[in-house]
Design a protein that fits this description.
This protein has 361 residues and is α/β, with parallel strands linked by helices. 45% of the residues lie in helices and 17% in strands.
Length: 361
């Protein structure tokens, strides 16, 4: 009888020991350190700095600080993207630029739960963008820098470039947000419908129909964004091609080395917090085809051929319509929403070409 009682107890102890061991390994993996390079002009920094009374986070990677500076505006808005640079190590943008990944006020590594989120407004973030730009221009002795927004960060980068074109060599936006209107939803719907039809995935087709309603002209309009985005990932057009949100976002966060345990645990709360800020409300109802029709600097757009999170046909259309001294649209093969990491060779080569064109190299 005593032996019978000991057996379950041994199993419980072994399970608890395994959980503790896995947690210890996870903590050891969460060093918070970023990639480093050899060479006296190389630079690898991670820090939080106060700007306009708010915490801002920075990851800086460069193999040669004589290279031009590229300010990378994180996605979301409110989502730190350095995790992808940590996971997809073939991406070597720091070979061509001094890359500054910016976590704007109270997001990512700069998250502070006591910060007054009413101060997260478009006006304040654009002022932060200008001050971050000036800080980088002064620190690296550059008259101008390159500006690159990704996904939700394209809202900020586009407007900053419009406001202060004299401070930037060019705007390079990846996965540009063009509109949140029915044109966007309908393109997403048609992509998913075609993909699920090819697969005879009737369950997903049913969920897709349940997540939309129809406008008077027959277009699909999203009424359940959470399920809509989940279905986009299932169809192969989400953050990473053919990866679910869990595979493409959650796992890279959990197993990256660039965040500490604390930073990993605050990643999601910071991201969710941004959805309830004044900024989130201010960005509703946008259509840049109507509101930003010209720029006084070169502008280039990069999209993945499977990106229907920010549908690439809309980005191509926007590029054709916008007036600028120079412009270009680049469609990256074998990539969805994140071509810089999904197909780094082709994307980095295009960025190198843009650098050469702008700087006459």
């Amino acid at each position: 009888m005593l032996k019978d009682r000991k057996k379950p107890m041994c199993i419980v102890i072994c399970v608890l020991a395994l959980i503790f061991l896995l947690f210890a390994v996870w903590c050891l993996m969460s060093s918070g350190k970023i990639r480093t390079y050899e060479g006296e002009k190389s630079l690898s920094e991670k820090f939080v700095m106060e700007i306009n009374g708010s915490p801002n986070g920075f990851f800086i990677n460069s193999k040669n600080t004589d290279n031009p500076v590229l300010l990378f505006v994180s996605s979301g808005p409110g989502t730190d993207d350095y995790v992808f640079t940590d996971k997809y190590k073939d991406m070597d943008l720091e070979e061509t630029f001094t890359v500054v990944y910016w976590d704007y006020r109270d997001m990512g590594i700069a998250y502070d739960r006591s910060f007054d989120t009413d101060k997260i407004t478009l006006e304040n973030i654009l002022k932060d963008t200008e001050d971050v730009t000036d800080y980088l221009r002064e620190r690296f002795s550059k008259d101008k820098i390159f500006l690159m927004g990704f996904s939700g960060g394209t809202h900020i980068a586009l407007r900053a470039a419009k406001a202060h074109p004299e401070k930037y060599h060019a705007l390079i936006n990846m996965a540009q947000c063009v509109t949140d209107g029915t044109d966007n939803d309908d393109l997403m719907y048609r992509f998913m419908f075609d993909e699920f039809t090819k697969r005879d995935d009737f369950s997903s087709l049913k969920k897709l129909e349940e997540s939309v309603e129809r406008t008077e002209d027959g277009k699909a309009k999203c009424r359940d964004w959470y399920n809509f985005v989940a279905l986009v990932h299932k169809a192969g057009g989400g953050t990473i091609k053919d990866r679910s949100e869990f595979e493409g976002i959650v796992l890279p966060i959990l197993f990256c080395r660039c965040y500490t345990v604390k930073e990993k645990l605050q990643y999601v709360p910071a991201m969710k917090m941004y959805r309830k800020t004044p900024l989130a409300a201010e960005l509703n109802g946008f259509d840049y085809r109507e509101s930003v029709t010209s720029l006084d600097l070169p502008v280039y757009f990069i999209s993945g051929e499977y990106d229907f999170n920010c549908p690439w046909p809309l980005v191509e259309e926007y590029c054709e319509k916008i007036e600028a001294p120079d412009k270009g649209f680049y469609l990256i093969k074998d990539a969805a929403h994140s071509p810089l990491w999904e197909n780094p060779a082709e994307t980095c080569d295009i960025l190198k070409q843009i650098r050469g064109k702008i700087l006459h190299e």
